[in-house]
Amino acid sequence: MKVLIVDDHFMIRNSMKFMLQDLYSEIEFIEEDNYYNAERHFSNPDIALIILDIDIPGGTGTNMVKQIRAARNDVRILICSASDEEQMAIHYIVAGADGYLEKSVDPQEAARAVATVLNGKRYVSADVQRQLLEVFSGRHGATNPLASVRLSVREKQVMHLLLEGKWVKEIAAMLNVQANTISTFKSRIFSKFGASSLFDLEKKAKEKGLYHK
């Protein structure tokens, strides 16, 4: 079995590998630390599982899952995130991911997530599962988490600067933070809106009253 691990943190990739090697005797790994390089593997028919960090450099939010599904509809996708926001998880599951795992969980829970996904089932927290049932049954109505977007003050700030045409490095300099920090904010913003491009982000932000030009 081949597993593609897409994460820019070496320690995270290593811990995933050690955990999977304990579970499966015959396993091979492909590792990438950015989304651009990972794309070339999506159509590989030998890959059974893709473990994807949502904050990966070059990532475009939920559009990453859609791109993987376009290349391989049968591959299993487990999203890993440092964020425990239920809204993020719901967007990724609806986009086509098979599981959403918080990086803060213990190794036993991570192993359970992988086994669940590889067995053809969906892995999410109990709260996310409940909300997904409500979304698909139409019971959420006006409170549907897919219909609303909650942004932090910093996320709003970064979004406005992106939509004003600023580059990631420019925004980092303006806010006195690292460029990869801004890339992380960008990825989360795209995920929350389900946007695939800046044009799409602007359109959706305007529709939700979060951006006015």
From TrEMBL:
> According to the lineage, what is the superkingdom?
Bacteria
Spell out the SUPFAM superfamilies in the cross-references. C-terminal effector domain of the bipartite response regulators (SSF46894), CheY-like (SSF52172)
Q: Which Pfam families match?
A: GerE, Response_reg
Q: Which intervals hold domain Response regulatory?
A: 2-118
Which residues, renumbered to this chain, carry the PTM 4-aspartylphosphate?
Answer: 53
UniProt-listed PROSITE patterns:
HTH_LUXR_1 (PS00622), HTH_LUXR_2 (PS50043), RESPONSE_REGULATORY (PS50110)
One biological process term in Gene Ontology: regulation of DNA-templated transcription
Q: Which UniProt keywords apply?
A: DNA-binding, Phosphoprotein
GO MF terms, alphabetically ordered: DNA binding
Start and end of every HTH luxR-type domain?
144-209
Family matches, as PANTHER family = TRANSCRIPTIONAL REGULATORY PROTEIN RCSB, TWO-COMPONENT RESPONSE REGULATOR
Q: What is this protein called?
A: Response regulator transcription factor
Species for this entry = Dyadobacter sp. 676
